[in-house]
Amino acid sequence: MEATEVRKLAALEDTHWWYRERRVLLARALRRLAAAGHRPGRALDVGAAGGGNTRVLRAHGWRPVALEYTPEGAAVARERGLDVVQADARHLPLPSASLGLVVAFDILEHFDEDHLAAAEIRRTLRPGGTALIAVPADMALWSAHDEAVGHVRRYDRASLRAVVEKAGLVVDELWSWNVLLRPAAAWRRRRSTGSDLDDPHPVLNLGLRAVITAERYLPVRSLPGVSLMLRAHRPTEN
């Protein structure tokens, strides 16, 4: 991601409907892990950008490190008081089996060698550790936005599952997100000429937030969405 895009994302992250709801989903996943007996430990937020997800991890008792590839991204996270590592997600500078949780939201799509990043997630997770992964869905939604933010591909369920399982992780759950707004996203993407990261009018932001919030309570996770989300674990025997 370009340095200007990282700065733009950091400025939007606290209030933008999309990032706010994604933090809610992360918090929900962390509560479910806790309810299942997973005690907080060391965690990695890959591609932390403004550090919003890293702060959610910290608020739920995890000891997170924010990982960013670019000096600009690392500087933004550091300015926000986070522990930061500047590195490539395909070559994580962390010991094997040292993490209880890896969060990689909108990361894999940036690499030709997405399998290398997935393999590093598995390597650094301790046996039984959890990976939470999000990616953009469906090449039918490919647009100038994807090119502007450095995407290589968008995923379908089969391709996301394949890269995660090839890395040696066991997929526990795979679902769609941002389903209700997919028609609006498709319409906008057909007309886009660059990144659609922007600061919507407060009224529009509130309306979109209401729609994406409603999705939590509706049985739409099996329908096509704008994103795919996945929860997986490293099996205890490898």
Describe the structure.
This protein has 238 residues and is of the alpha/beta class. Helices cover 40% and strands 20% of the residues. The protein has nine helices and seven strands, in the order ααβαβαββαβααβααβ. A seven-stranded mixed sheet has the order 3-2-1-4-5-7-6, sandwiched between helices. Strand 1, helix 3 and strand 2 form a beta-alpha-beta unit. It is globular and about 45 Å long. 37% of the residues are buried. The model has no long low-confidence stretch (mean pLDDT 92).
For the sheet with most strands, the description reads: 7 strands, mixed
Say what oligomer this is.
single chain
- Please state the CA-atom Rg, rounded to the nearest Å: 17 Å
Strand order of the largest sheet: 3-2-1-4-5-7-6
Q: Name the structural class.
A: alpha/beta
Q: Count the DSSP helices.
A: 9
User: Low-confidence spans: pLDDT under 50, at least 5 residues?
Assistant: none
**Strand percent estimate:** 15-25%
Question: What would the principal axes of the Cα set say about the shape?
Answer: globular
Topology overview:
Elements: H1 3-12, H2 17-35, E1 42-46, H3 52-59, E2 63-68, H4 71-79, E3 84-86, E4 99-105, H5 114-124, E5 125-136, H6 144-148, H7 157-166, E6 170-177, H8 182-191, H9 202-214, E7 227-233
Parallel strand pairs: 1-2, 1-4, 2-3, 4-5
Antiparallel strand pairs: 5-7, 6-7
Features:
40% helix; 238 residues
Quick recap of the structure?
The chain starts with a helix and ends in a 5-residue tail after the last strand. The chain has helices at residues 3-12, 17-35, 52-59, 71-79, 114-124, 144-148, 157-166, 182-191, 202-214; strands at 42-46, 63-68, 84-86, 99-105, 125-136, 170-177, 227-233. It has a seven-stranded mixed sheet with strand order 3-2-1-4-5-7-6, sandwiched between helices.
